[in-house]
């Protein structure tokens, strides 16, 4: 018995060592690439610092500047929420409807699944470059098609007007992500028992009634996940804007992450802008707090909705 207990203890200790060794690389990566950058940003948000000169402690000066002397930051935040809102209005219903159709085993459904999902695989930078050519003012294919259809008489300068530019941004962003959301919905739909629909059909429920009283309630958890991922993904949108418009015209299509990015690094039209690590860090902190508040509100609302449904 004593020998058996000793062997068991040795086995447990060996298992613990193995577990520690297995999680150590991931823990080190998490500390280096997540925790350390957060601490770095928090620290420099209280300094005036450009990366090479002597840092100057300014206390809450950077945060005061964000809230009182930088309307461009809040305009970029409005653009971010505008894009997120439009994507939720159009992208989520589109992804859900397509998932419902493809889940019905229509002819060629596998082909359409691949076609709709492919944009999610492409590089966002490449997609932005392609669409910037398609929507070119003088030799763009979109203008040529609209002219041939008789919808316009002269070329539209898509990126010289904020309204047109935001339309293109929302369209491209929707095109690149709706396929992935469709796959999420498909996964949820395939877990719904067919017997529920058969019983509903026997009781006289039509397809619309089956959709609203069976499909929607049962895919609600997937819908909550997709909504949250959509908001978070839009808040982190950077490369698409930089390649497609770079904030043009006149910075009116900047989103919050590109605006912060341009204070960290000189880029494109902002090459003359002085690098300000301290101020960029303070904007990053404010953005993180706002995103955290939005997330908490969403979680509380979704929790209350679940309680009402129960």
TrEMBL record:
Family, as annotated: Belongs to the binding-protein-dependent transport system permease family.
Cell compartments where the protein resides: Cell membrane
Cross-referenced Gene3D superfamilies: MetI-like
Recorded superkingdom: Bacteria
Source species: Hungatella hominis
InterPro entries documented for this protein: ABC_transporter_permease, MetI-like, MetI-like_sf
PROSITE patterns referenced in this protein's UniProt entry, alphabetically: ABC_TM1
Membrane topology: Multi-pass membrane protein
Domain ABC transmembrane type-1: 77-298
KW DNA damage (keyword) present: no
Protein name listed in UniProt: Sugar ABC transporter permease
Keywords noted in UniProt: Cell membrane, Membrane, Transmembrane, Transmembrane helix, Transport
Transmembrane segments: 20-42, 81-102, 114-135, 141-159, 166-187, 211-233, 240-265, 277-299
């Amino acid at each position: 018995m004593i020998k058996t207990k000793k062997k068991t203890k040795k086995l447990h200790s060996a298992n613990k060592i193995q577990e520690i060794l297995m999680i150590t690389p991931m823990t080190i990566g998490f500390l280096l690439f997540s925790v350390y950058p957060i601490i770095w940003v928090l620290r420099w948000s209280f300094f005036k610092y450009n990366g090479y000169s002597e840092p100057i402690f300014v206390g809450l000066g950077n945060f005061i500047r964000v809230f009182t002397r930088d309307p461009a930051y809040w305009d970029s935040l409005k653009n971010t929420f505008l894009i997120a809102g439009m994507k939720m209005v159009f992208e989520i219903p589109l992804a859900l409807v397509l998932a419902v159709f493809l889940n019905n085993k229509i002819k060629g459904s596998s082909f359409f699944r691949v076609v709709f999902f492919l944009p999610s695989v492409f590089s966002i930078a490449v997609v932005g470059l392609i669409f910037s050519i398609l929507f070119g003012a003088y030799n763009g294919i979109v203008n040529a098609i609209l002219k041939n259809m008789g919808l316009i008489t002269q070329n539209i300068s898509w990126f010289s007007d904020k309204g047109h530019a935001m339309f293109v941004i929302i369209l491209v962003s929707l095109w690149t992500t709706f396929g992935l959301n469709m796959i999420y919905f498909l996964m949820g739909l395939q877990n719904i028992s067919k017997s529920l629909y058969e019983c509903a059909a026997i009781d006289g429920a039509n397809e619309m009634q089956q959709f609203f009283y069976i499909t929607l309630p049962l895919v609600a958890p997937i819908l909550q996940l997709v909504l949250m991922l959509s908001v978070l993904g839009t808040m982190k949108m950077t490369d698409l804007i930089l390649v497609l418009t770079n904030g043009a015209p006149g910075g009116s299509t900047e989103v919050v992450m590109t605006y912060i990015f341009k204070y960290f690094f000189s880029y494109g039209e902002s090459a003359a802008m002085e690098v300000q690590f301290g101020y960029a860090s303070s904007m990053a902190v404010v953005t993180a707090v706002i995103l955290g508040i939005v997330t908490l509100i969403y979680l509380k609302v979704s929790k209350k909705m679940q309680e009402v449904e129960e």
